[in-house]
Specification:
heterodimer, A: 133 residues, alpha/beta, five-stranded parallel β-sheet, 5 helices, 36% helix, B: 654 residues, alpha+beta, five-stranded mixed β-sheet, 17 helices, 13 strands, elongated
Chain lengths: 133, 654
């Protein structure tokens, strides 16, 4: 259990706190960003091992946009070196509508989802799975 | 047919209509006239037979001295040329009794002596009739000569020939043939009198009258006058007949044209009500106008926001070049301005002589000679124009303006509907966006609180005393309730909004139910319940909103699971019956008390025994289900026995 770096991109400070407490208790290093733009900047700066991304921040598609940028198909994109970092998406949608999100290469290039309100154990499980444990 | 020249244009145009595929029956009079030409041929068989038979009877039985050989020869000659006529008729697809119509001109190629336009059937038959009459005249003169010349009783036969002619030919032609007959007989009398041609006497005539000048003169005089009078009388009758025929023809044309217009109007109104795609509808109207009126082109234009320029929103039959010639300023296009300001149709009879056009040169270049503009009146305001164009000047009249105005009304309705629908979509979208925003704003804080409570509960921020645990649990429960309530309320609100324009698509219920089962499987297992499903092989399809329908069965199944204690079972059965889809969700749960049954679908209502099992229900699940089912035109009902279980039945029309 090396202390991998996890970047949380979410504008809700309470939620960030919950995630921090949960993951730090398991020995991870947790960094945070409060917007999509800040998040992308921090990816370059910190080069995390995992990114936890909230779906909706300031505007509806903020979360999606971040994942699309990071996983841009253009090989010359500035985020190309970071496209392999696993992305875990936070969403409240599954619990409330029959809409099913699934990772989609073109529209939603993320690796897994975790539902809000957060169940700490579920979060830890998914994080560990994505980090290959 | 002998109709005079003035009627020719209508004949030609009627043929043109046939060419364009218009249904255009011949008038009964026309049919009959053609039939009579045929009848002329048929009658001639009798004439030929008559000549031969009469000759034989007269010479053999009555012993009258006759030039039998020449007479038999004449009879055979008549027979012969009638055969030619008959053959000619065979090559023409004339209507006869079966009234088949066909294209005539191709058949005329081997008969080069029939000159002139072979376009109209009438012309062909007219010439044919004249030819027949002409040859008959030859035969008649020979017959008269062979039966005594000026003494011949057969002189009278010219009269009925002329009566036939007056039915078939124009008055002028009849007078011509009458004159021809008079001259011919006169000439015959003279040559026999003079002795150039030997007179053939009828045996029973005592004195050689043919040499009596007075006799000849008086016969010729009365003969000629008789012919002319007969022609005059007969042609007066037939001219009258033809006038009536013309009138009938004109009325038929009017009727046909009116019928076509009604057809187009009907089709246009059908399409207008069947689609909300404004562009499609307007283009269809433009095309229908052009086709129904049989003209070159049609445009539909609407005033833009400034109220000064008209934009062309639909066009048919015009070149790209003409359509993009420049902005149409209503101050400069005075005919359009007139139409808009007066609210009346405006006609431009000749583009080369009208100064109301903004782009006269372009119009001429495009081949437009006349125009008709009719205002489009939407909600009592003239908001645009429909214009039609044709290559001939003076093409448009009152009835055209009326028809176009009717189409314009249909167009106005289409535009109104499309705009209303657009406004609706905008409003709908605004509502959806609002709901989404509200969802987020309400849910985020609740979500955050719940997450923090869970952290606390699970010891991530240090150990908690049992009392603290208890309070945390209670808080969690209340938050859960709030989250569920927010969800359900938004569902309900969304459901009610869907009534106003949710898109219905084909839903395969088998897949929807299967998904619900899949989602609920874990909860059922966790509670130790059996979850069964029974569905037919055939797809149960209906038009509906998939999201809504999934919600219905989610709610029913989750209720069933919630209110069934461990060890029980929940079953979902779906089938098709009498063109409807039926779905039953039954459980072996706590059941619903009788007094609660009538209120079970009410919003926020929860039966007492349900509250005992599960304090946190919102009471909205069944209300939402009922709302969605009813929106799909279906019904939902329940049967239940307290303590044994409940069965909810949903019926949905296909």
């Amino acid at each position: 259990m090396a202390n991998e770096k996890i970047l949380v991109v979410d504008d809700d400070p309470d939620l960030v706190e919950v995630i921090r407490l949960t993951l730090e208790a398991k020995g991870y290093q947790v960094f945070s960003a409060a917007s999509g733009t800040e998040g992308l900047a921090k990816v370059k700066e910190i080069q995390p091992d995992l990114i936890i991304l909230d779906v909706m921040m300031d505007y509806t598609t903020e979360g999606f946009q971040v994942s699309l940028q990071l996983r841009s198909p253009d090989p010359r994109s500035e985020y190309a070196p970071y496209s392999k970092i696993p992305i875990l998406m936070l969403t409240a949608i599954h619990a409330t509508t029959p809409l099913r999100f699934a990772p989609d290469k073109d529209y939603l290039p993320v690796d897994d989802f975790v539902e809000k309100p957060l169940e700490p154990n579920a979060l830890v499980q998914k994080v560990e799975k994505l980090l290959g444990k | 047919m002998g109709l005079d020249c003035k009627s020719k244009p209508s004949r030609v145009s009627s043929y043109k209509m046939e060419e364009k595929g218009g249904v255009f029956p011949r008038t009964p009079v026309e049919e009959e006239l053609i039939g009579r030409v045929v009848w002329q041929v048929q009658l001639r068989w009798l004439a030929a037979a008559g000549v031969l038979a009469a000759t034989w009877i007269a010479s053999s039985i009555l012993k009258v001295r006759l030039p039998t050989r020449p007479l038999y020869a004449l009879g055979l000659f008549i027979l012969f040329y009638n055969v030619l006529f008959r053959l000619f008729l065979l090559r023409l697809p004339y209507p006869s009794r079966t009234r088949s119509l066909g294209y005539i001109h191709r058949a005329l190629l081997p008969f080069k002596w029939l000159e002139g336009e072979a376009l109209a059937t009438a012309t062909i038959f007219d010439r044919f009739a004249k030819v027949q009459t002409g040859i008959d005249w030859v035969a008649m003169i020979l017959l008269v000569h062979l039966s005594g010349g000026v003494e011949s009783p057969l002189l009278f036969y010219f009269i009925f020939h002329l009566i036939i002619a007056s039915i078939l030919l124009s008055p002028l032609a009849c007078y011509f043939f009458a004159t021809l007959a008079a001259l011919a007989v006169g000439a015959l009398a003279i040559v026999e009198y003079v002795g150039l041609v030997p007179h053939i006497s009828l045996g029973f005539i005592p004195a050689p009258l043919y040499q009596n000048g007075l006799y000849i003169a008086s016969v010729l005089f009365f003969f000629t006058t008789c012919l002319y009078i007969s022609v005059y009388l007969a042609t007066s009758v037939t001219t009258n007949l033809r006038q009536k025929d013309r009138e009938l023809l004109r009325l038929q044309q009017k009727l046909s044209s009116a019928y076509q217009r009604i057809q187009s109007l009907y089709e246009v109104t059908q399409t207008v009500s069947s689609t909300l795609n404004l562009e499609e509808v307007l283009n269809l109207i433009a095309q229908s106008a052009a086709e129904a009126m049989r003209i070159k082109a049609c445009t539909i234009r609407l005033l833009d926001e400034s109220g000064q320029i008209v934009d062309t929103v639909a066009a048919y039959g015009l070149s790209e070049q003409y359509l993009t010639k420049g902005p149409i300023d209503i101050q400069k296009s005075r005919h359009i301005y007139q139409a808009l300001s007066l609210g009346q149709p405006t006609i431009i009879a000749d583009t080369s002589r009208d100064d109301r056009l903004q782009y006269p040169t372009e119009a001429q270049a495009e081949g437009i000679s006349s125009m008709l503009c009719v205002p489009l009146i939407i909600k009592s305001r003239a908001e645009g124009v429909i214009c039609v164009y044709d290559t001939e000047p003076n093409r448009f009249n009152e009835s055209d303006a009326e028809f176009l105005s009717a189409l314009a009304s249909a167009g106005a309705i289409a535009i109104k509907n499309a705009r209303a629908y657009q406004a609706l979509e905008v409003a709908n979208k605004a509502k959806s966006e609002f709901v989404q925003m509200v969802t987020h704003e309400l849910r985020s804080p609740l979500s955050a609180v719940q997450s923090m409570l869970r952290l606390l509960e699970q010891g991530y921020v240090g150990p908690t005393t049992p009392k603290q645990q208890d309070l945390i649990r209670r808080s969690k429960r209340r938050i859960s309730f709030l989250l569920a309530l927010v969800s359900d309320l938004l569902d309900l609100a969304a459901g009610k909004m869907r009534q106003f324009g949710g898109e219905r698509r084909e839903v395969v219920l088998n897949a929807t139910i299967a998904r619900v089962i899949e989602l609920m499987q874990t909860s059922a297992e966790e509670k130790g319940l059996e979850l069964k499903v029974e569905m037919p092989e055939e797809p149960l399809t209906l038009m509906g909103v998939e999201e809504g329908l999934e919600r219905v069965f989610m709610n029913l199944v989750s209720n069933a699971i919630k209110y069934t204690p461990t060890g029980g079972s929940v079953a979902v059965k779906a089938w098709s019956e009498n063109g409807q889809i039926k779905v039953e969700v039954s459980d072996t749960g706590i059941g619903i008390p009788e007094e609660a049954l009538p209120r079970i679908f009410d919003e926020f209502y929860r039966a007492k025994n349900a509250k005992a099992v599960e304090m946190e229900g919102t009471g909205l699940g069944l209300a939402i289900a009922k709302d969605v089912v009813e929106q799909h035109g279906g019904q939902i009902s329940v049967k239940s026995t307290l303590g044994e279980g409940s069965t909810f039945c949903v019926t949905l029309p296909r």
